[in-house]
Amino acid sequence: MTTTWRPAGLAVPRHMHDLTNLAFCVEGPFEETFGTKWRQVSNRSLLIRPGGEPHANRYPACAPSRTLIIEFLPHALDEIRCETRVLDTPSHLESPRFAVLARRLDFESRNPDSVSLLAIEAHVYELIVSITRGTLMRNGGEPLWLGRVREYLHSRFTQTISLSDLAGIAGVHPSHLAKAFRRAYGATIGEYIRQLRVEYAATLLKQRRLSLLEIALACGFHDQSHFTRVFANAFGVSPGRYASCVGCR
After folding, report:
1. Which secondary structure element, helix H or strand E, spans residue 183, and what is its range?
2. Considering the entire predicted model, what is its pTM?
3. Tens digits of per-residue pLDDT, 148-168?
4. b/e per residue, 80-102, with b = 16+ CB within 10 A?
């Protein structure tokens, strides 16, 4: 476990860590992105960063930030993977319990004694068990495993994703996942993915750097005609018309 300090106003470009790690914001919120979306990281956040996963950070100009980072050596990660693959998916999770845990870890690191290392390890393994079993809840009563699936969709929506893959990430039955997801987000998983794709496509259309076919493929659509149908259904106009309207503004 290490503590990192970042000065106010710092921007860290996209980079990656060799080792899988967990990160807790102890003080000074910041932003992090993996995939295409920036997320606000607070003292109620837990970041799961698999080794080799690219991400970037932005720190506000008003105050510095301090983060606790817990890295897993390869042999320890292999042992955890025998029971759960929860650390293999990049995630930004939110729960009031993370603030409590971060304070406990911070206290152990600042006030070490003969059992501090054991206490830190116990807290971390208890956290992994809680996330895997879905016993941790967000503020609104949403299980963290559901938020983990949502984060996975945001980082992989341009790729082919199966329900069985998502159920494996969540640790629940596929039918339970499908029902819980629709109840929480008001859309099926397929509808949610399509919405992410057309929103990303709209961003690319505004940039006016790629052809319609290139945008279709970059957003995960089978071909340009499929992209056109889905986009028109979502925005009420064709991609070409949308790009023209944006260019006239």
Report:
1. helix 174-185
2. 0.61
3. 888 888 888 999 999 988 988
4. beeeeebbbbbbbbbbeebbebb
